[in-house]
Write the structure tokens for this entry.
Amino acid sequence: MKNYLIPEDDGLSTRTSGKWVTEKLYYLKRYIDMFETSMRNKPWRRRNYIDLFSGPGKCVINQTSEFYLGSPLLALTTEHPFTDYYFVDADPNNIEVLKERCSASQSAARIHYLVGDSNTHVQTIVNQIIQIDRSFIKGKWPSINLAFLDPEGLELEWNTVATLAQVGRMDLIIHYSQNGLTRNLEICYNSDDETIIDRFFGDREWRKIYQDWQNKKTRVGIHRQLIDYYKAKLQGLGYVEVLRDDETGAEPLIRNSRRKAPLYRLLFASKHELGHDFWRSVTRKDVYGQRRLL
């Protein structure tokens, strides 16, 4: 039990990952640390961390056999912990293993676990947060929240993002699956049925963007256009608009460690400029301490 919360083998199951996962975890940890250091002494009713695709809590790098804390344990072991945690995973075994690991934390009693589809459970989480906020004076230091939305592919639905946005102060770190979209764009475009990409964007407008790109009506890359469209929809939910030059620099592109092929980007959304200041600071340098190239 003593090594449940440190990055080493504890005898429980783990998630096998590529080396590139360390980059994602680096940005997440830096943002969590900055977020909590800045917010912990302010009179927020709650400081909630929400992880909708939590996994078992640890990962092992397949190339090196190194162990790393996954996103839920990074949030749990930060120097200044959140007041409450919400961990969701579709795999019951992942949640059972995560519970075992989290039992070693002093914050264990403040963790809420949900098993099943995060796109279904998100409303339950949001209802709980809103109910707590309603018991206090509106707008006077309600909860402040960070949601990490990191599926393995395109499982995150737009309705889930929109549901989270019902909460007044809800920062989002979103996995934009560039590789998953690239592999599925043509298949989904040619389907008359609702597709996984329709659910990711929340509508079928992406098809027009893809069609124009195919017809060479624009020289802008397809993912630049799709990301801009996604961010415009976030703005429609009340998230702060940032100039695209700044946005592009704050969208870390995670690549396959060996082939260097693009895998995914991390998109950030906040309803407050300070959140974007934090994120730009976090993403200015990569995991190796080098100034990151766009």
Notes: Residues 21-39 form the longest helix (19 residues).
